[in-house]
Amino acid sequence: MTAPQNTTMMETPPAAQHTNSADAILRRLATRAMGLTGADIERIVREARLKARRGKRAIRYQDIEEGIRGNRPPVPYNLRWRYAFHEAGHAVVHHALDLGPVRGLNIDTGEGGYNLVGFHAWATDTRDWYEHMLTMLMAGRAAEQLVLKRVSSGSGGSDDSDLARATRLAFNMERTLGFGPEHPLLYRPHRDPGAVFERDAELADRVHAKLEAALDRAGTILRRRRPTFHALAKALFEAQAMDEMAVLRILTDGDPPP
Questions:
Q1: Could you tell me the pTM of the whole model?
Q2: How many secondary structure helices (H) and strands (E) does the chain include?
């Protein structure tokens, strides 16, 4: 028979409550503002101050949030779900591989989703870390494949896209980081991997194989953590912007027991 346990509940002092509330508001605003430039934010704050002045009151958090959201067109329903699954895929894999904290997720930009993640400094620079990074970068595409059964061009199309970053990373593993099977001790940088691939089909095949393996690993992780993945995607779809604490609550609920 288990003995009754005494639980001590500690009330947060009013000053701490105010600090926690202010921190939460700042985190929410920072998450909402992902994707905006400094000039965008300055303009939004200026307009919010003007609105408050006209109302003869102090500026409110809601004024700034409304300014951020009013600056963006509403995201169509189906596209919003795609963004939510894509960004939730990145976050779940990032957490599962213990790469670092997930600072925030946002699908309210009108220009695709954003994720802000951190990295543990002690874990970087090994071959395993680079393979984990490739897996995380390919996780958005893997999430779309898993749930929607087809992928969009959202993973690629620009020099800062998931596919571009993953390709450069796999290219560097082969040519500059000493992890390739061919002449691993030679440092062979190049500013344009695409030009090298056109001349070296074998290198292109090896890099593509790395990306395929990373995509498969990401899909495996998402299938194993499907309830967490779906819970995070649903929460992100509804909230459209989630700060670190909101994301972490869902991710840790799905962690396997020690």
A1: 0.78
A2: 11, 3
